[in-house]
Amino acid sequence: MPTNLKPARIEFVVDGALLRSQLTATARAYGAESDDARKRVRQLLHGALFRGRMIAKERLEAGENGLAVARLLAQVADQVISALYDFTTVHVFRSRNPTQGERFALVAVGGYGRGQLAPSSDIDLLFLRSYKQTAWAESVTEYMLYMLWDMGLKVGYASRTIDECVRLAKEDHTIQTALLEARLVTGDEDLFVQMEARFRKDVAAKTHAAFVAAKLKERDERHSRAGASRYMVEPNIKEGKGGLRDLHTLFWLARHRYGFARPREYVDAGVFTAEEMGTFRRAEEFLWTVRCHLHYLTGRPEERISFDLQPEMAVRLGYGKRGEQQGVERFMKRYFLVAKQVGQLTRTLCAKLEADQAKTAPKGITRRSDPARRTVGLDPAGFRTEGYRLNIERPETLDDPINLLRLFQIADQRDLDVHPVALGEAARRLKRITPQVRKDPRAIEAFLSIAASDRHPGAALRLMNEAGVLGRFLPEFGRIVAQMQFNMYHHFTVDEHTLRAVDFIADIEKGRFKEDHPLATEIFPKIINRRALYLAMLLHDTGKGIGDQEVEGEISARGACERLGLPPEEVDLVGWLVRRHLAMSDFAQKRDVGDPRTIAQFSELVGTTEKLRLLLVLTVADIRAVGPGVWNGWKGQLLRDLYYLTEAALLGGRTDEAGVKEHLAEMARGAKERFLADLGEAAAPALDGWIDGLDDAYWLAFDAEALAWHGRELMAARSRGEPVYVSARPRPEHGVTELIVYAPDRPGLFASLCAAVSATGADITDARAHTTRDGAAFDVFSIQTVDFKPFGLQDQTGLQALIARVRRAALEDARGGESHKASRRSAAFSIEPWVRADNEITPHATVIEVSGRDRPGVLADLAAVFADARISIISAHIDAQGERLSDAFYVQESDGGQVRDAARLEKLRGDLEAALRAGEPGAPSDAARRTLAVAPASTGR
Predict the structure, then answer these.
(1) Which residues of the chain have pLDDT under 70?
(2) Which terminal Cβ of the chain has fewer Cβ within 10 Å, N or C?
(3) Other CB atoms within 10 A of residue 437 CB
(4) Distance in angstroms (rounded) separating the CA atoms of residues 310 and 324
């Protein structure tokens, strides 16, 4: 962590006495109530406020920590508001002989009440009265508020008496929280002291249990809104899990229960240890530093550290590149480690509050019979259960490093949570896990029983990770703890993603995803090497950030498994799974699974049905754990197709290309026969030329239901004599909308269709182009909305508009228009496009792989390049991972066959790379490019 964060220091940067004298002089010169006086007062106050804020900004940029800056900003506001109050009550609405009803105090509440103010945050004020509203109090309140608003401040306010404050605080926990942080800014000090005393006596002392419950419920709901994990890669620093609001919640709970105002008092009372208070302070300083920089950087109350802001934030906080790790990744790792510490502090305080509550609870028969309060000793000695949590008899229990693992082993075996006290003591003893302990058979046995537990290993592993024990015992995993990948694809840190993937495997094993993943659920009981699967999942991403992810991951996984003493064949299997954990998704999403060579190559890669089963479950869990919206039924269908075709080849004993080709041809014939049976005797004559004109890949690429739909739609179109037919239907079970186009083939048709789809705002996730014997094109697209939903599922009007637009595109060249630029978030990433051509993947086509920045309309731009080069697209396999696309096109020359000419391939590569760069930040517009060169005539599909 950078060391340029200076110690907090508090001093006044606004001279309150000078400001008051200037305001007094203004009243004398212009008359306090004149427009000129009001204008001059506003200028003086705003100038003081502006100077104070600029000093705070300069100090932050010079290395001052954000907590000190937040306190400084609150002090600046105090001085300005106090001076305004004095001017208002002395010169504008002076009360020479104040009555009881004119006693008045100006109170800061909320974050401002804590004496902490972010650069763009609201100022929350309570105008405290001793009596019902009077004309004088109303005038003072109104004058001050309008003056503050005219200065550009965002002010939240309330005007209440003490009785009103107490009554409303009893009714509303939000008001109660605000008053908990109340602080006198200026005015009648005795009135404020009375309010504080009433609040403590009539509210805080009587509603503690309800307040704690309300705040914890509010926290859970807030976490749910902001994302239920503290390890989301675009965290909300204020509202997110592990953020500032969680620290504020700790403050509220502790202050409500104990009433302490100074940190030392919490240590003296045993609420927190000195070490924990130090952790609290450092976390608060870091989070406030990030928040203040975020507000100054954006010029608004931005609380989300989005991708486009993270690089600049890393620079501002002094994080540079180190080895393979970018500065932005180091900065975000520090953030996630702090968020983790906030979680540990939350658990500690909640356990303390729970224990205090238990001490004051009735000691009768109800308590003795309540299992949630029962304490039971355990064998082995040194452990005990407290309700539904596992604790230790004494801290010394964990002096034995083996017990650091047994703690979580017992919790897993008995289905218990681990008590925060035990977690904290475990975290303090991590150094006891030495290299010798990692090889101790007792420690290994405990760890392996957790990692491959038949209960729910993810739960115990997550607790081990929270305490730091997992990364200490398994250093390969420790290296990826809180590690962030700076991309838009992964939603969580590497360790959180990994543990979520372990959770998904356990859920699949227990049948909880039977509807979503019927194949994975069906084959799981057939898996022989179950432990290898869980260990491979735990270790699959340990190669990230140190080179080639798959190669380094295999090295890392093998080292870990050898140290754990696994049999050589299991070490080999885990290593193979880690090395190949991306292979199945790559083959399914970027290759034509109806191509015999694809199946032959994949069959050769996996070798056995056991590895095929393991790889399927591993792949499904890995994709699902990336984040919400990444998995859909279409990806599931692609994986199932690849699995079934590969399994058939492996079980048939013919994994060579000729054998696979023969087997696939037989499967295609079977699919065609089922298709004709489904549609009836009229299908064959009605679809003459279409059925026999489609190759085997078509019949293998779609399930029976989709094939039958295609046939029915085309039979209806042909019966009406329609030369062009377009139809679409959402398939929610696949997460896509299926779009079919039947039209006379012509050069540039596929590019026109892609442009039309893109123009409606839909994303193409898969595309297959077929040409029948009678010269008709039959293309099938899978499309989604930008948020990964079937396009038109909730908007039939939009779906009909898409169909109409695609129909027009089928009749005339619809290409053209401006290329879409990358989004602001996507523009934060440096992406170098590349194009690769391969004639070895399949004998009948050239496979062109492209990778670059994803953006709306990019597929249409790429398809236009192929059309202009007179190259036909047979199928397009689309795979966007966050900001990066990774597409594969099966293409042929316009008269069939592979593209073999080297110069032609080189020009194609250059044109495709230019199309990928068209959406780059700073790239010239389409209009500008057209002034430099005239595109060739559109030929080729």
Answers:
(1) 1-12, 96-101, 226-228, 355-380, 486-490, 773, 814-830, 881-883, 919-941
(2) N
(3) 18
(4) 18
Task: Give the helix, strand, coil percentages of the chain, each rounded to 5.
Answer: 55, 10, 30
User: Does an H or E element contain 384, and which?
Assistant: strand 383-386
Q: Crossing angle, helix 858-868 and helix 902-917, to 10 degrees?
A: 150
What the block records as the tokens of 586 is: 């790559």
Q: Please name the residues in contact with 378: beta carbons below 8 A apart, sequence gap of 6 or more.
A: 384, 385, 390, 410
Determine the pLDDT at residue 169: 92
Tokens of 14: 């606004």
Q: What fold, for 211-360?
A: Four Helix Bundle (Hemerythrin (Met), subunit A) (1.20.120)
Element (H, E) at 557: helix 549-563
CA gap 451, 502 in Å, rounded: 9
HSE-CB at 455 with a 13 A cutoff on CA atoms is 16
736 forms beta bridges with 731
Tokens linked to 209: 């249990």
In terms of C-beta density within 10 A (0-12 exposed, 13-18 middle, 19 or more buried), how is residue 377 classed? exposed
CATH level 3 topology of 16-169+185-200? Beta Polymerase; domain 2 (3.30.460)
Gap between the Cα atoms of 338 and 285, Å rounded:
10
Q: What is the CA radius of gyration of the chain?
A: 34
CATH code 3.30.70.260 region(s) in the chain:
723-932
Sign, Cα dihedral of 664, 670, 673, 677: negative
pLDDT of residue 717: 87
pTM of structure: 0.83
pLDDT of 8: 39
CATH 3.30.460.10 placement within the chain:
16-169+185-200
Question: What is d(CA 477, CA 461) in angstroms, rounded to the nearest whole number?
Answer: 11
What is the distance between the alpha carbons of residues 294 and 316, in angstroms, rounded to a whole number? 10
The predicted-structure confidence for 411-442, as pLDDT tens digits, reads as follows 999 999 999 889 989 999 999 999 999 999 99
All CATH 1.20.120.330 domain ranges of the chain, comma separated, are 211-360
If phi > 0 it is left, if psi is from -120 to 50 it is alpha, else beta; for residue 567 that is beta
d(CA 63, CA 5): 5
CA atoms within 13 A on the CB side of 614: 27
Q: What are phi and psi of 420, to 5 degrees?
A: -55, -35
pLDDT at 249: 87
Residue type, 33: E
The count of residues in the chain is: 941
CA angle, residues 266, 344, 255, in degrees to nearest 5: 30
User: Cβ distance 728 to 807 under 8 Å?
Assistant: no
C-alpha dihedral over 187, 193, 195, 198, to 10 degrees? -170
State how far the Cα of 66 lies from the Cα of 17, in Å rounded to an integer.
27
DSSP-derived letter for residue 483 is -
Structure token pair of residue 215? 């705040």
Three-state DSSP class for residue 885: strand
Domain 723-932 CATH class label: alpha beta
d(CA 257, CA 180): 11
